Amino acid sequence: MAEPEGLDPDRSLWDYIAIEVRRLRQVRGLSGNKLAEQLGCDRSYVSRVENGRLHLSRGYAERLDALWDTTFARLVRLAETSDDGDWFTGLTDHEARATRHRMWAALLVPGLLQTPEYTRALLSAGVDRNVEADLEARRARQAVVWERPEPPLVSVIFSWAVLAQPVGGSDVMRAQISHLLELAEAPHISIRVLEASNGAHNGLDGSFRLLTVGDREVAFTDAPERGRLVTTPTDVMKYAVRYDRLSDIAAPVGTSRTILNGSMETYQ
Q1: If you ran DSSP here, which 8-state letter would residue 215 be given?
Q2: Does this model's pTM top 0.90?
Q3: Where does the HTH cro/C1-type domain start and stop, copy by copy (predicted)?
């Protein structure tokens, strides 16, 4: 049986899980529709899992184990704690399902809040050779989060350095800050600024995010070229504590709006 294009079970445990779901479904003579019916999910979910575009969730892994007497739940737990380089699929999966996002931005506007011009300027400044394709992928990620019937609760804390770091010139920065102010008008979005006067704090070593997915939380840390998903509860708790401490010293929402407006005026 040919493996789905782009999947490498020797490289990624997630790829192995995807291939095994497909193989065992076919061994049992089940169509994708039939398996979806047995699991109580959409046919598209089965297809995306089997093609590696979505990670199998713990819940559906447990249902497969009950149906087939397999060990997918154990494999999923191992995959979630491994670092095989396949972090992006997991991140987008969590973003699409998260009911709450908490973000700390140390230097740049987080991707989900970027304007197309800001994103293009960032991509063009690096070694990216597929700027337009990656820009479209970023737009698709944003649409999945912001255009849901019930959008998630979003709380963002920006370092003052995010506003002081020019990206793409004055026009791009003015438009980006204006976009942030517009987003902050929504009742489900909170944007606050941590000012330079706070001095040293525990967010100086980099940006991170906390996402509430179902009844659990995961964390994500940024790094050059790749990020890292953190799923172990004790490790996720450390990020939650860090976020709470940053929240304690960040400016209130009203003051932060004044800071954003003032920053926008500096880009003339």
Answers
A1: T
A2: no
A3: 21-75
